[in-house]
C-alpha cells in the first residue's frame, strides 16, 4: 500500500528539527507460524545461561566522554557537540545545579490547537490540524477511559489500552479499527502500558495487577488474531513500567537489536530481558533504599561511546538516575556496564531522552529540568504547572474494575504520569487537562536570538562563543567540519558586536555625571575588545568598532584605557598607527605615565613613532620604555646607559641617596646586557649576545664619559656602579667570567676591569671596608678556581689585610672582621702569611679570625680563649665545649686539652652563667664538683653554682642537651643549706621540703646557728619532735608580739625578707604557721598532750592584750582579739569547750575583771558552736532523707516477683526438681537465670559475709560480662537486670522456703530472712524484714 498524504504528514519532520524520515511498510500482517504457549519469566530465571551468548554485568568504569565521537552519527538527530572540556571528569559526583555557564533558552514551548478534553483519541499533523477522531462515547462507556497509547515505528498502527482491560488496534491511515483484544491478560485489571517493539507483529502490555504480557499479532486465513503469553507475573513483584528498546532505521543492523530488549521496572528493581530468539533474563538491578511514593522510570537511547553507538538504559526511582550501557563485543559476549549516575535534588516523576546527550526530567513539583548527561550540568529549568498535567492515578488504582490493586502500587500511582509525558525525535509532548503542549529543542541561532531580544548582549556573546569553541550543550543546527562551524558562529558574533556597540552608543545617557557615562561604556567596551581578540579580528576592532566609538569622547577614552591589560598580557601585540597615537596622547593627557610605560614595553616596535616615543620617555623619566625602544628598535644598548649615567652620576658623586624610578634602572640594564638578557623583559638575540657584551665592556672601561668635566675622575662608569651596589656588580662580573671562559677578548676585558677595580678601590679612601672586602672576596673566589685566568698582585692582599686589621681604627670593627672572615673562607687564606695574619687579628681583636685559624690547625683549646675574650660571643662557649666533648670526629687528646682548659676557666664560666655551667659540669665534670667548689673563692658564687647544680640533679633540665641524674653528697647539701641561711632564708624551707639528701641533726644545727626559726621548726617536726618545733615557733610568735606591744620595735634578726611587712602582718603569718603545726600534731596526741600545745598558744595571744592601753592602741587590740578568736576556733576541734572556758576564766587578765571583758570571747565561741550544731543537724537530716529514699526503693525492688526463663539449672542443665525424694536449694536471680545451690557453690559464685547468711552472683551473667572485656559490672541499684535474687528450698512434703536476698552492684545476693511461699516457680515473692546497710561498701 502506498504512503498516503495523511500518513506522510504525521511522520515528516520540520526543517528546523531535522527529524529522521522513516520508511513505511505495506499494510499487511506477517504470517508467522503459531508456537506453543511460552513459559513465564519466573520459570526462566533459574535456567542456565546459554554458553554461546555469555553475559557479563560490569560495574567498572564511568562513561568516558573522551572516547565519545560527537559526530559519529552525522544524521538528523539532535545530538549535541561536546566541547572537549574534560574538567567534569575530575569532579566528584555531585548534585546537578544551575551553572554560571550561559546556556540560554534550550526548549521552545508551544500549545497544540484543536485538542480538547472531550476527545477520546485523536491524531494531529504537524500543522496542528485534526486528522482523525477514533472511537465513540459508546466505546468509552463499554471499555472505560483510554489508559495507554502506542504508535508503531512507521506511524501506521495505533494501540489503545483501556481502563477496563480492553486493547484495540487502529489503522492510522484511514481510522479503521483492526483488532479488539479482550483476553490478553487477566480480567478485572486496567491497562497501564501498551508498547510496540521494533517488530511490527510484537507488542507488550502491563496491567494494574503488575503483570507483563507479550502480544503477538498474526494474520491467518485473512483473520487478524492476537496471541498472548505472560512475561512476568504480578504475584512475584508488581511491574509498573515497561520500555522496549526501539531502533532507528539507520541502526536496524545493530547487533543488539536482534534480541528485542525489554526493560521492566518493578517496585524494588529493574529487569532487562530479551524476547528473541528465546525469552531470556539479561540482568536485574535493585534500586536500593527509596521513597515508596517515588515513581520508577525507564528510558532507552542509542549513545555514541568510544566511536561505537550502543544502547544506554536510564532508570531511576527517586532522585538518582542510573545508566547501563549494553554492548556486544567481537566474541559475542554481552556486557552491561554501569555508568556514572546522576544525582538530582528532586523527586523524579518523568524521565526522557531528548537526544543522545540530553535528558529532560520532571519532578513532583511539575518543573522540567534539561540536563546534559556527560557533564551532569543543568541547562534549563521550566515550570509547567500551568499545563495541568494529567496523572494516571485512577488507572493504577484500577477504579474502573473495582480497585483490586495492592497498596504499594496505588501509592506509586499518585504521581504516575507515564501516558501524559512522552518524547519522540527531539521533542516532548505533555498532555494537560485542557490542552496538549509540545517542547522542542531550539537551534543555536534561535537560542542566541532569544537573548538578543531581551538585550542580554553579554550573555548572547558568551553563548555564541561556547558554540564557537564547541563547549555548548544541546547544540542543534551546526553542521559540517569544525572550521566551517566556527566561521558561521564567528559571523553571528560579529553581528552581535555591531548591535551591542550601536545599542550602547544610542543608549548612552546624554546628561549627568561623567562617572555614570564612563560606567556605561566600561560595561561594554572590555567585552567587545575581549571577543574581538578571541576571534582574532583586530581589523574589526580598530577599523570599524573603534571608528564608531570615537564619536563619543567618553567611549573613546574608555576604549583606549581598556587596551592596556590586553597589551600587558601580550594578547594584543600590534596596534594600528592612528590608535597608537590616540592611545599615547590620551594616557599622557591624563597623566597616566605608568600605563604608557607598561604598554610601550609590550608592543611591537614597528607600530611606534620612535622619535616621539623617545622624547616622551626622556621628558617623563620612562627609562624602561626608553631602553626598550633603543634596544629593540635600533639594537643600541649603550646610548641608554650613557643617558642614565648623566642622571645617576652627579648625586652619587655628591654622596646623595638615589630616589625615584631611575635608581635601579642603570645597574639592572647593565646586568641584563652582560647576562644576555634584554631589559626590561625578553632576551637578546643569540647572534648579538657576544657583540653586546663587548660593547658593554668597552663602555665600562672608558676613562671618561661622553660629557666629562674637568673635575671628573678616571673610570667614572665603574666608580658609579661600585658606589651604587658593589656586591651586585661583582656578582654580574662573576657570572660573565663563567659564561666566557673560552672567549679570549672577553677575558682580556675582564682582566682589565679587575685591574681598574683594584686601582680605583684600593687607592681611594671613599670606599667602605665592606666594599673593599667584597672586591677581594670576589678575587679570592676567582683565584681559587682551577681554571682561573685572572692575575692579582699578592702585595695588594697584604695591603688590604693591613687596612682591615688596623688597630688604630675602631670604626666598623664588626664589619671589618666579617669582611676578612668571608675573604678567608672563600680561599683567601692562601694569599696571606698565617703567622702575620694571626698577629694582626689578635691586635685588632678579631677573635673570629683567630678561631678560624686555630680550627684549621686543630688548636681547639685556644678557641676557648677566643670565646672568653670576645664580648659578643661569650655565651656561645658553653655550646662549643659541649659539642666538642660530645660529638665524634675529635681525637681523645684534643678533647682532653679542651676538658682541662674548661676546668681551668671554670670560675669565669660560673661567673658568666651559673645555670649553663652547672649543666656542663653535670654532663662532663661529675667527678670534679668538689675541686670546682674549692676553686670558687666567692661564697655567693658558690651558692649560685650549688643551687643550679642541685636543681639540675633533682630533675633533668629541659633543653637541647639532656643531662643524666647527678647526686651530690650530704655535706654539699648541708653546705647549700648554710648558704641559703645567709643569702635567701625565705627559700630554705622549700628546699628542705624538696630535698631528702641532707642529715637532720646537722641541718638543725645550721638553722639554729643562723636563727632561721621556721626552717628549724620544720626540721624538728620532721625529726618527730613536735613539741620542740612548737616551742621554736611559739618563741618566734612571742617575740613578734613583743615587737607589737613595745614602744621601740626592733627588727628581728634573720627576718630581713619581711622588712616591708607591718608587725601585725608578721604576727598573723607566724600565728598561721603555729596553728598549722598544732593541727598536724593534734591528730596523733591524746587530750592532755593537745592541751600542752594549744593552751600555751592561747596564753601567748591573750597576755599581750593587757599591755595595750589608750585610744591609739584600739586598732591593734581589735586585730589581736580577732587572731585570738582564730586560735579559739581552731582549738575547739581538739579541746572541749568547757575546758577552754575554764582556762579563760582562770587567766588573771579575765579572772579578776568583770564578765564584760570576756563577753566577746564567749559570744564568739557560742556563735561558732551554734553554726556547727546547725550544720550537723542539717547534714544528719539530709543523710536520713537519702537513707529513707534508698530503703523505700530497695523495698519496692525486692518486693517484685521473679519469673525464671526456664525450668532447668543453667549450669548442670537438669530440671530444678532432680529427684522427688531429696530437697534441693534453688537460686533464682532477677535476670531470670535459675541454678541449683550446689551447682553455684561448685562454680565459686557464692561466699559468706559477716552478719549475712550468704552472698551469691549469677554465674552466667558474670561470665558473659567478663568475656566482653572486664570484671567490672556497672549496674545501678534497682535498675539492673540482675539486681536481686531469691533462694527457694523445695521438698516433696513441705512447701518452698524463700530466703530473700538483694544483690549489690557486683551482682551479689544477700540472704536475710526465710518465708514460706506458694509452690509455684513462676510467681515467687520476696519479703524483707531486716535490711542491713554497709557504710563502707555502700550496699544494702
UniProtKB/TrEMBL annotation:
Annotated GO CC locations: CORVET complex; early endosome; HOPS complex; late endosome
Pfam families the record matches: Beta-prop_VPS8, TPR_Vps41, TPR_Vps8, zf_RING_Vps8
GO biological process, one term: endosomal vesicle fusion
GO molecular function: zinc ion binding
Taxonomic superkingdom: Eukaryota
Domain RING-type: 1209-1261
Keywords assigned by UniProt, alphabetized: Metal-binding, Zinc, Zinc-finger
Disordered as annotated region, ranges: 1044-1065
Biased composition (Basic and acidic residues): 1044-1063
PANTHER family according to UniProt: VACUOLAR PROTEIN SORTING VPS41 (PTHR12616), VACUOLAR PROTEIN SORTING-ASSOCIATED PROTEIN 8 HOMOLOG (PTHR12616:SF8)
Family as reported in the entry's similarity comment: Belongs to the VPS8 family.
Protein name according to UniProt: VPS8 subunit of CORVET complex
Species the sequence originates in: Oncorhynchus mykiss (Rainbow trout)
Amino acid at each position: 500500500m502506498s504512503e498516503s498524504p495523511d500518513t506522510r504528514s504525521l511522520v515528516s519532520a520540520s526543517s528546523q528539527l531535522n527529524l529522521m524520515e522513516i520508511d513505511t511498510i505495506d499494510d499487511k500482517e506477517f504470517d508467522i507460524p503459531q508456537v506453543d504457549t511460552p513459559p513465564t519469566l519466573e520459570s526462566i530465571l533459574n535456567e542456565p545461561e546459554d554458553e554461546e551468548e555469555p553475559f557479563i554485568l560490569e560495574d567498572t568504569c564511568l562513561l568516558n566522554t573522551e572516547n565519545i565521537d560527537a559526530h559519529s552519527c552525522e544524521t538528523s538527530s539532535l545530538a549535541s557537540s561536546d566541547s572537549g572540556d574534560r574538567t567534569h571528569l575530575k569532579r566528584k559526583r555531585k548534585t546537578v545545579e544551575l551553572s554560571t555557564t550561559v546556556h540560554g533558552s534550550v526548549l521552545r514551548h508551544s500549545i497544540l490547537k484543536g485538542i480538547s478534553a472531550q476527545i477520546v483519541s485523536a491524531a494531529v499533523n504537524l500543522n496542528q490540524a485534526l486528522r482523525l477522531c477514533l472511537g465513540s462515547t459508546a466505546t468509552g462507556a463499554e471499555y472505560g477511559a483510554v489508559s495507554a497509547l502506542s504508535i508503531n515505528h512507521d506511524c501506521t498502527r495505533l494501540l489503545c489500552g483501556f481502563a477496563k482491560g480492553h486493547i484495540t488496534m487502529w489503522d492510522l491511515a484511514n481510522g479503521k479499527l483492526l483488532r479488539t483484544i479482550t483476553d490478553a491478560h487477566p480480567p478485572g485489571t486496567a491497562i497501564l502500558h501498551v508498547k510496540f517493539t521494533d517488530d511490527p507483529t510484537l507488542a507488550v502490555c502491563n496491567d494494574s495487577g503488575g503483570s507483563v504480557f507479550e502480544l503477538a499479532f498474526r494474520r491467518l486465513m485473512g483473520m487478524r488474531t492476537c496471541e498472548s503469553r505472560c512475561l512476568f507475573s504480578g504475584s512475584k513483584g508488581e511491574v509498573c513500567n515497561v520500555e522496549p528498546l526501539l531502533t532507528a532505521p539507520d541502526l536496524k543492523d545493530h547487533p543488539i537489536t536482534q534480541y528485542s530488549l525489554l526493560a521492566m521496572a518493578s517496585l524494588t528493581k529493574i529487569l532487562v530481558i530479551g524476547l528473541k530468539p528465546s525469552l531470556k533474563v539479561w540482568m536485574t538491578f535493585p534500586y536500593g533504599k527509596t521513597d515508596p511514593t517515588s515513581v520508577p522510570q525507564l528510558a532507552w537511547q542509542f549513545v555514541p561511546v568510544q566511536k561505537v553507538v550502543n544502547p544506554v538504559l536510564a532508570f531511576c526511582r527517586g532522585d538518582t538516575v542510573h545508566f547501563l550501557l549494553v554492548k556486544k563485543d567481537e566474541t559475542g559476549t554481552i556486557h552491561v556496564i554501569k555508568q556514572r549516575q546522576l544525582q538530582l535534588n528532586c523527586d523524579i516523576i518523568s524521565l526522557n531522552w531528548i537526544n543522545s546527550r540530553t535528558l529532560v526530567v520532571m519532578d513532583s513539583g511539575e518543573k522540567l529540568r534539561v540536563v546534559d548527561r556527560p557533564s551532569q550540568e543543568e541547562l534549563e529549568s521550566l515550570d509547567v504547572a500551568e499545563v495541568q498535567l494529567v496523572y494516571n492515578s485512577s488507572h493504577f488504582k484500577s477504579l474502573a474494575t473495582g480497585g483490586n490493586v495492592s497498596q504499594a502500587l496505588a501509592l506509586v500511582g499518585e504521581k504516575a504520569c507515564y501516558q501524559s509525558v512522552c518524547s519522540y525525535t527531539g521533542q516532548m509532548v505533555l498532555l494537560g487537562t485542557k490542552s496538549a503542549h509540545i517542547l522542542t529543542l531550539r537551534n543555536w541561532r534561535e537560542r542566541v536570538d532569544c537573548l538578543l531580544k531581551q538585550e542580554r548582549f553579554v550573555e548572547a556573546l558568551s553563548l555564541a562563543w561556547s558554540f564557537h569553541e564547541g563547549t555548548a550543550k544541546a547544540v542543534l543546527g551546526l553542521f559540517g567540519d569544525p572550521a566551517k562551524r566556527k566561521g558561521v558562529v564567528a559571523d553571528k558574533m560579529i553581528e552581535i558586536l555591531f548591535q551591542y556597540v550601536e545599542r550602547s552608543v544610542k543608549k548612552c545617557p546624554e546628561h549627568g555625571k561623567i562617572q555614570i557615562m564612563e560606567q556605561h561604556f566600561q560595561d561594554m567596551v572590555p567585552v567587545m575588545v575581549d571577543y574581538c581578540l578571541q576571534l582574532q579580528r583586530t581589523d574589526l576592532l580598530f577599523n570599524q568598532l573603534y571608528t564608531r566609538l570615537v564619536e563619543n569622547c567618553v567611549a573613546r577614552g574608555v576604549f583606549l584605557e581598556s587596551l592596556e591589560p590586553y597589551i600587558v598580557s601580550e594578547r594584543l601585540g600590534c596596534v594600528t598607527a592612528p590608535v597608537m597615537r590616540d592611545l599615547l596622547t590620551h594616557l599622557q593627557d591624563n597623566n597616566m605615565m605608568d600605563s604608557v610605560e607598561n604598554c610601550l614595553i609590550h608592543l611591537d616596535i614597528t607600530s611606534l613613532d620612535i622619535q616621539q616615543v623617545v622624547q616622551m620617555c626622556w621628558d617623563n623619566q620612562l627609562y624602561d620604555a626608553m631602553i626598550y625602544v633603543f634596544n629593540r628598535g635600533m639594537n643600541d644598548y649603550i646610548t641608554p646607559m650613557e643617558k642614565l649615567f648623566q642622571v645617576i652620576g652627579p648625586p652619587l658623586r655628591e654622596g646623595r641617596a638615589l630616589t625615584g624610578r631611575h635608581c635601579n634602572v642603570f645597574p639592572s640594564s647593565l646586568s641584563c646586557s652582560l647576562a644576555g638578557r634584554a631589559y626590561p623583559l625578553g632576551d637578546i638575540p643569540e647572534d648579538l649576545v657576544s657583540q653586546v657584551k663587548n660593547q658593554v665592556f668597552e663602555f665600562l672601561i672608558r676613562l671618561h664619559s661622553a660629557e666629562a668635566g674637568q673635575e671628573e675622575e678616571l673610570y667614572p662608569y665603574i666608580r658609579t656602579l661600585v658606589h651604587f651596589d658593589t656586591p651586585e656588580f661583582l656578582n654580574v662580573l662573576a657570572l660573565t667570567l663563567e659564561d666566557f671562559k673560552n672567549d679570549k677578548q672577553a677575558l682580556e676585558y675582564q682582566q682589565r676591569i679587575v685591574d681598574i677595580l683594584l686601582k680605583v678601590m684600593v687607592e681611594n679612601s671613599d670606599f667602605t671596608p665592606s666594599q673593599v672586602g667584597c672586591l677581594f672576596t670576589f678575587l679570592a673566589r676567582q683565584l681559587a678556581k682551577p681554571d682561573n685566568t685572572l692575575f692579582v698582585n699578592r702585595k695588594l692582599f697584604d695591603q688590604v689585610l693591613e687596612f682591615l686589621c688596623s688597630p688604630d681604627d675602631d670604626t666598623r670593627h664588626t664589619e671589618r672582621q666579617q669582611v676578612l672572615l668571608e675573604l678567608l673562607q672563600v680561599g683567601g687564606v692562601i694569599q696571606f702569611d698565617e703567622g702575620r695574619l694571626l698577629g694582626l687579628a689578635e691586635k685588632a681583636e678579631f677573635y673570629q679570625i683567630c678561631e678560624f685559624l686555630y680550627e684549621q690547625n686543630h688548636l681547639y683549646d685556644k678557641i676557648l680563649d677566643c670565646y672568653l675574650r670576645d664580648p659578643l660571643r661569650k655565651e656561645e662557649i658553653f655550646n662549643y665545649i659541649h659539642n666538642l666533648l660530645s660529638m665524634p670526629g675529635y681525637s681523645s687528646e684534643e678533647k682532653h686539652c679542651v676538658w682541662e682548659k674548661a676546668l681551668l676557666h671554670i670560675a669565669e664560666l660560673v661567673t658568666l652563667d651559673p645555670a649553663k655551667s652547672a649543666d656542663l659540669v653535670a654532663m662532663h665534670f661529675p667527678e670534679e664538683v668538689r675541686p670546682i667548689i674549692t676553686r670558687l673563692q666567692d661564697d655567693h658564687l658558690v651558692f649560685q653554682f650549688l643551687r643550679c647544680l642541685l636543681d639540675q640533679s633533682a630533675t633533668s633540665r629541659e633543653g637541647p642537651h639532656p643531662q643524666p641524674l647527678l647526686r651530690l653528697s650530704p655535706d654539699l647539701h648541708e653546705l647549700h643549706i648554710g648558704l641559703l641561711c645567709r643569702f635567701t632564708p625565705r627559700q630554705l624551707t622549700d628546699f628542705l621540703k624538696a630535698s631528702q639528701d641532707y642529715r637532720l641533726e646537722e641541718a638543725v644545727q645550721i638553722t639554729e646557728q643562723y636563727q632561721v626559726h621556721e626552717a628549724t621548726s620544720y626540721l624538728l617536726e620532721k625529726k618527730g619532735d613536735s613539741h620542740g618545733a612548737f616551742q621554736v615557733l611559739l618563741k618566734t610568735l612571742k617575740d613578734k608580739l613583743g615587737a607589737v606591744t613595745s614602744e621601740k620595735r626592733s627588727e628581728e634578726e634573720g627576718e630581713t625578707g619581711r622588712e616591708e611587712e607591718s608587725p601585725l602582718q608578721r604576727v598573723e603569718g607566724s600565728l598561721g604557721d603555729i596553728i598549722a603545726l598544732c593541727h598536724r600534731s593534734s591528730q596523733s596526741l591524746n587530750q592532755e598532750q593537745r592541751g600542752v600545745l594549744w593552751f600555751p598558744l592561747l596564753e601567748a595571744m591573750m597576755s599581750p592584750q593587757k599591755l595595750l592601753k589608750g585610744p591609739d592602741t584600739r586598732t591593734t587590740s581589735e586585730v589581736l582579739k580577732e587572731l585570738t578568736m582564730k586560735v579559739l576556733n581552731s582549738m575547739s576541734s581538739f579541746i572541749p569547750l568547757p575546758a577552754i572556758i575554764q582556762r579563760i576564766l582562770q587567766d588573771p587578765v579575765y579572772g579578776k575583771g568583770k564578765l564584760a571583758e570576756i563577753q566577746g570571747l564567749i559570744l564568739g565561741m557560742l556563735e561558732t558552736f551554734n553554726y556547727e550544731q546547725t550544720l550537723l543537724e542539717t547534714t544528719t537530716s539530709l543523710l536520713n532523707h537519702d537513707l529513707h529514699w534508698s530503703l523505700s526503693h530497695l523495698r519496692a525492688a525486692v518486693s517484685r516477683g521473679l519469673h525464671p526463663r526456664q525450668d532447668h539449672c543453667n549450669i548442670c542443665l537438669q530440671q530444678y526438681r532432680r529427684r522427688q525424694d531429696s530437697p534441693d536449694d534453688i537460686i533464682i536471680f532477677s535476670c531470670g537465670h535459675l541454678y541449683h545451690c550446689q551447682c553455684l557453690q561448685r562454680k565459686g559464685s557464692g561466699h559468706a559475709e559477716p552478719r549475712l547468711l550468704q552472698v551469691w552472683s549469677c554465674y552466667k551473667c558474670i561470665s558473659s560480662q567478663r568475656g566482653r572485656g572486664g570484671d567490672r559490672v556497672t549496674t545501678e541499684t534497682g535498675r539492673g537486670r540482675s539486681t536481686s535474687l531469691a533462694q527457694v528450698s523445695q521438698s516433696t512434703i513441705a512447701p518452698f522456703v524463700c530466703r530473700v536476698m538483694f544483690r549489690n552492684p557486683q551482682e551479689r545476693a544477700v540472704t536475710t530472712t526465710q518465708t514460706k511461699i506458694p509452690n509455684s516457680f513462676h510467681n515467687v515473692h520476696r519479703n524483707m524484714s531486716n535490711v542491713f546497710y554497709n557504710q563502707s561498701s555502700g550496699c544494702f
